[in-house]
Amino acid sequence: MAARATRCAPMSSFVALSRAWDRRGPVKGFLTNVQRAAGGLPLRRMPDWLRPVVGWLMPRIGPKGLEFARARVEMKAVETIVHLRREMPAKIKNMVPPHVWPLVQPYGLVPADDERADAPAEKRP
């Protein structure tokens, strides 16, 4: 039998597919909801009659594959920082690894001076 050469799709097509769904809008909306919930404000829930419609629609037009995974990782990072800032601000320095801060920076969450473990220590006289 002769070996058949298989052709892979060019890398540019994978890049184009990954940009088909923009996750920034939904993650910003998630951040707003998390901040409202952390502040004690009630959240507006989806009406019960709309849930099956959204459940049918999201797999067809929503995020898929890597974009879904990236959106979930960014949402969990946002949720972690908002929760720790509210509930345990003294522990945020040790509980949030340095690689999380660049993930949440596009959404306006920037670390304070005392929130980074890799921040330069103050010089003592």
Concise overview:
The protein contains 6 helices and no strands. It has 125 residues and is an all-alpha fold.
Name its key features.
125 residues, mainly alpha, 6 helices, 52% helix
What does this protein look like?
The protein has helices at residues 11-18, 24-38, 51-61, 65-87, 92-95, 101-104. By secondary structure, it is mostly helical. The chain has a domain at 21-107. Helix 2 (24-38) packs parallel to helix 4 (65-87). It is globular.
Which regions have little confidence, pLDDT < 50, spanning 5+ residues? 4-18
The end-to-end distance, rounded to whole angstroms, is 78 Å
Structural class: mainly alpha
Computed over alpha carbons, the radius of gyration is 20 Å
Shape: globular
Helix-residue proportion: 40-55%
How do the strands and helices of this protein lay out in sequence?
Elements lengths: L10 H8 L5 H15 L12 H11 L3 H23 L4 H4 L5 H4 L21
